[in-house]
Amino acid sequence: MKSKRNVLMLVLMLAAGATQAATSPQLAVQLWSVKDEIKQDFEGTLGKLAKLGFHGVEFAGEFGKYQADPAGLRAFLKQTGLQCAGAHMHVDKLNAANFKATTDFYRAVGCNRLIISMDQRAASKSGSAELAKELSAISARLEGQGMQLGYHNHEQEMLGEQDQTNWDVLAKNTPRNFILQQDVGWTTFAGKDPVLLRQQVSGPHRHHALQGQVRQGRAGQWRRADHRPGPH
Fold this sequence. Notes:
Elements: E1 8-12, E2 26-30, H1 35-40, H2 42-51, E3 56-59, H3 70-80, E4 83-89, H4 99-109, E5 113-116, H5 125-143, E6 148-152, H6 166-172, E7 179-183, H7 184-189, H8 194-200, E8 207-213
Parallel strand pairs: 2-3, 3-4, 4-5, 5-6, 6-7, 7-8
Antiparallel strand pairs: 1-2, 1-8
Helix pairs in contact: 3-4, 5-6
């Protein structure tokens, strides 16, 4: 694994550790950050992540030889000691045609958090409202299966005045159990304070997951020029 490779880390309570104190989060790796490595050696890369001390992984569409073998993937995760922190996907994976196949796969893996990685509608207020309506309907359907839905931000959701961003539109128009997966790198890049933003959209039952992207650049600055679009 490349020593200078950007690693996306999820700071959240994993499913198996949900009873731990909120002050003791576990760390998981968003597998998009090692997408080249897992295409070359899926099992070896996850094994290295486990040895580095990570508690879990968040999938991003690549499963090695387990692409059609979720039970095998679950067994492999158990063998390595890794948990499934969640999975990133595009919203069409949860449309009427794909819903059953997608949820059957992830339930078999032992994954109950499904995160929409990006949607172009979230670049505008009207689009964000339309997206929130669709996500709320999907969330209700997933809840009946013991699963949660969430959304991961990029820069487009964080632009605009404080309290009036497209992220605020999504937060105000989705249910309390909806996961707001804030990418603190993109939030900072958009000129917003990730801590303040989290506090502003929090409620007594609002579930948050924080994802950080650390990119090498000039001291004190975020550089996103090496960002590669994709389902993360």
